[in-house]
Amino acid sequence: MPHRNKPKFFRGWAIIIIVLVGFLAINATQSYRALSELVENENDANLTKSVLRTIKDLYSSVQEAELGLRGFFLTGAESYLGPYYFALSTIDENLIEMRNYDFQIPEQIDNTKRLELVILERLQEAGSHILQKQADPDSYRISSEKMRQSYDSMAELGEVIRTMEELEYDLLERQSERAHRSRQNLLYTIVIANSVGLLLVILVAYLIRKALKTQLLEAEHLEMLVHQRTEELEHYSNELQRSNRELQDFAFVASHDLQEPLRKIRAFGDRLKSVYAGKLGDGEDYIDRMQSAASRMSRLIEDLLEFSRVSTRAKPFGPVDLNQVMNVVLDNLEIKIQERNAQVTATKLPIIDADESQMHQLFQNLIGNAIKFTQPDIQPQISIECQVYETVKLGELENTVYEIKVKDNGIGFDEKYIEKIFTPFQRLHGRDKYEGTGIGLAICRRIVERHQGTIEVDSIPGEGSTFTLYLNSRTKDQLVGTEISPFTEGTPNG
Structural domain tally of the chain? Predict the structure, then answer.
């Protein structure tokens, strides 16, 4: 499937999955309701069964009391009263239990009161008759009368019991029907939920399989792209190597073939001036200009050669003591320092991993510029200061970023030209006032960047400039590929 159709494809399946999940949620709600109804119906049915059981127990207790009472009336034997009194305690318990029921049929409350009234009236009459029978054991009239009253009371009691039982059985039948429907609904929802769940699992498994297949195809495509990019990078690398070789060849030509014609121009110019001195008239001035242009061209070629050698003839990095570098640089610039009566001061400098020859070139260019670009009537004051800017510890390795400032009290410049001064062959002043080709600071920036650092400058016209270097104590290669950036915002540690 084309890549542009993937979002639409997966969006369609996502909608289907959302619909199925929503259906499962609705089904789960229905299942919960059905289960709740089933539990509620079961509880109602259990209550109804308890009421029926209590009604039967109460009626049985009353019958046992009547049997004992009849035996006593017929025989006059006190032994028949034992079951009677035992049944009375059971009747009290059953009546209490009946009162505590929360009947689902409002009529049962009145029926319970009527039942309790019939039983209590019967027990009161039975109690008075027992006393009479005990007072006159041979009284047949009393016994016959009590038998008749017992029959009437039991008939009334039986009617109330049948009424209550019929109501409870009708209720139990309705509860059973509701419970059956709840079980059916719960069964349907479970079946539907399982079916949808199984469908969802199958759908997710299909999408996962398709996603894995798509990922595999993309991985193969990515691998192909990586292989293609690798070949392109190898091609670019070969082209870069070829370009570097051409640059080296150009440097060789610049240092030999181009310099040779310039030397001849300067030599023939000197010969013309010496042989035809006084005869050339205005031509002597032209010869001087020609030789001056040839000299500038020679210096320009030499500076261009130095700029290219920053990368093409760079030396491996190693421990470099910047204090020793500074001593050599000041020794090289001794004549210029004496000519301008310049005062150069430097604090203690660190030992860093660097190309020693390029460190010489870096500081010689910066200090040389500080001496050159000064006002004639002011003594040059140049200071080199160093402090720790940032320290980062990675395991057993530690990288320290040093902030080195080269400050002068020279002519300065407008800071809007900051980028211009680091561009090759760009000058802010005329050649008649300050010599040079305008490539020194470009070389400085290139050296600093090769050492994975940065160079910044602050300047005020007429007051001087401050060049700030940020140099690492270690290179990225020494830090085993760990990316260390010295260009973060922060306050120097001092």
Answer: 2
Q: Residue 20 domain-assigned?
A: yes
What pLDDT does residue 208 have? 81
Looking at the fold, whether 479 and 333 belong to one and the same domain comes out as yes
Cβ atoms of 405 and 467 closer than 8 Å: yes
Q: Would you tell me how many other CB atoms lie within 10 Å of the CB of residue 384?
A: 23
- Is-above-0.70 flag for pTM? no
Q: What is the pLDDT of residues 347-358, one digit of tens each?
A: 999 998 888 888
Max CA pair span of the chain: 190
CB 442 within 8 A of CB 424: yes
Question: What confidence tens digit (pLDDT) does each residue in 269-293 have?
Answer: 777 777 766 666 667 777 777 776 7
Q: Identify whether the C-beta of residue 422 lies closer than 8 Å to the C-beta of residue 449.
A: no
Show Cβ contacts of residue 103 under 8 Å, excluding neighbours closer than 6 positions.
51, 109, 112
Which whole-number Å values give the CA distances from 200 to 6, 31, 55, 195, 427, in the listed order?
21, 18, 53, 9, 74
- Give CA–CA dist 103/228, Å, rounded: 85
Does a structural domain hold residue 248? Answer: no
First to last CA, the chain: 61
Buried (b) or exposed (e) across 317-343, using 16+ Cβ within 10 A?
Answer: beebebeebbeebbeebeeebeebebe
